[in-house]
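hey so i finaly got around to running the thing on NitT/TauT family transport system ATP-binding protein from Kineothrix alysoides. pasting the sequence first so u can double check i didnt mess up the copy paste, my clipboard has been acting weird all day
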Amino acid sequence: MDIDIINLSKKYGEKEVLRNFSIRISEGAVTSVMAPSGAGKTTLLKILAGLEKADEGSVTGMEGSRIGMVFQEDRLCENLNAIANIRLVCDSRVTVPQIEKELRRVGLEGSERQPVRELSGGMRRRTALVRALLSPYDILILDEPFKGLDEHKKNEVMSYTLKKSMGKTVILVTHDEKEAKFMGGKIIYMNDNNYRTN
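ok and heres what it spat out for the 3d tokens, dont ask me to read them lol
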């Protein structure tokens, strides 16, 4: 089922971050949201994930859906290693060797058993991405998941993400048009409460 976002508005105090925002997100495809900092893109994702409430408007088509999420604050358990963090949310049938294989595919070989508090920001983000991709989800919400990666590694991780999420609904927030074009699908541009699609 497509997701219909209709006239969403959100304020924090006097600051308006979303105003009458309306789009349709196609089921089983990638939709990228591009915007500068402060344009409301992270707020939009939090509303979609059920972590924030809109002041006005509605979202339909997500009822009963399982959501996989990667936010800029990765929400990993600091004292656990990457494998243990992933096992907290993945299907019980996923084995440790399978998790290790997925971590290697995003360049985390050799770091799987370190506490995540010792990992760099980019390594933590990749751990969170693998965790989301191995969780049981219908809709994948990604907030700047490729930030901080060099061009070669970024392309590898984006290719991995596309392969693992094939056929699922993916909502990606990025400020990098190259990322949005690489991931394919619809691109929505947000700026000062003006919205347009490619």
